[in-house]
Write a structure and sequence with these properties.
342 residues; Rossmann fold; N-(1-d-carboxylethyl)-l-norvaline Dehydrogenase, domain 2
């Protein structure tokens, strides 16, 4: 059996680490990078990795565009921003076979959009459990450990997922599950809390969780997301095996409210230096992925008749910041529309 041909689209922190670790293990992997200097670096000295994956420099096959690829690929890992994923998937269609797998490695839930382009039978969802930062073009730092969790949308792809798990295990421990949607939803809730709040106020997670006003919004995001999941009859697994959303939101007494605030304050202290990815995007003058987080919750809620005014208003506020109509500031934590529903 010939080795799988693998393409990784996106040379950010996650994509670069994934491609480099696979290449180091001898896999046939090509990285698609939009920056010419990163392509040149990949082909010569290589991608430099630091952090939990160890310090190493690994040469990787690389091209600048999908159109420069030749032939077909067994595994396609799309590691771009959520809003760029559909275009990448369409451009990959000539390079896919009937049995190719295409993996959505975005934050948020993008598997529905991906399957509408490449087909349900070729779509795989992925939850990324480790943290990573792009320090410079070609230099990625794995900032925390964690697993890959993958799962196909169609049971017909289960056998091929074993090969996908094998190659991903060069990066970190990888496990296959049946209900990938539930895991994606669980992580999306955390992303919806951290990314949107950081984007509107400009604080690190620890600074936000020291503030009662920010914690109230954080908990309101979770409350609406859980109500939507309940209406979908979706059982949300605890995030990271520890954060049980239903247990967190259970009860309405003053003691229950105090317990909730204490729990998320503790989380904030553990990851106090964590900076919102949406805030980082805004600081670079880029769009955010808020539509795939809070926007997804609000849209699903609207379709199911579950009001999600806090998530909907956060989407609106982040878009206003993107458009230059609103500043990133602490006053946003007291936005009148938000306050109305807390």
């Amino acid at each position: 059996m010939s080795p799988a041909r693998i393409v990784v689209i996106g040379a950010g922190a996650i994509g670069g680490i994934t491609a480099a670790c696979m290449a180091e293990a001898g896999e046939d992997v090509t990285l698609v990078c939009k920056h010419e200097d990163t392509v040149a670096l990949c082909r010569t000295s290589g991608i430099h990795l630091t952090g939990y994956c160890g310090e190493k420099t690994v040469p990787v096959q690389a091209v600048r565009t999908i159109e420069e690829l030749s032939g077909t690929y067994d595994l396609c890992l799309i590691v771009t921003k959520a809003y760029d994923m559909p275009d990448c998937a369409r451009r990959m269609l000539p390079h896919l076979t009937d049995t190719s797998l295409v993996v959505s490695m975005q934050n948020g839930i993008c598997t529905d959009a991906l399957s509408s382009i490449v087909g349900k039978e070729r779509t795989v969802g992925c939850v990324i459990g480790f943290g990573a930062t792009l320090l410079s073009h070609g230099h990625m730092d794995m900032t925390s450990s964690g697993d890959f969790i993958i799962g196909p949308l169609d049971s017909a792809a289960s056998a091929s997922c074993e090969e996908l798990a094998r190659v991903l295990s060069h990066v970190t421990h990888t496990r296959i599950i049946d209900d990938i949607y539930a895991e994606l939803y669980s992580k999306m809730i955390v992303n919806a809390c951290i990314t949107s709040l950081g984007a509107i106020c400009g604080l690190l997670l620890g600074e936000m969780m020291n503030r009662r006003d920010a914690r109230r919004i954080f908990l309101a995001i979770i409350r609406e997301a859980v109500q939507v999941a309940d209406q979908m009859h979706l059982t949300i697994p605890p995030y990271g095996g520890k954060l049980n959303y239903h247990t967190l939101m259970k009860g309405h007494s003053p003691l229950d409210h105090a317990r909730r605030h204490l729990m998320i304050w503790i989380v904030g202290q553990k990851y106090k230096r964590l900076k919102s990815s949406s805030l980082q995007s805004l600081e670079r003058g880029q769009k955010t992925e808020v539509d795939s987080f809070n926007g997804y919750i609000a849209e699903r809620g609207q379709a199911l008749g579950v009001p999600c005014p806090v998530n909907a208003q956060l989407v609106e506020m982040v878009h206003e910041i993107e458009q230059g109509k609103r500043a990133i500031c602490l006053d946003n934590l007291h936005d009148p529309i938000l306050m109305k529903y807390l």
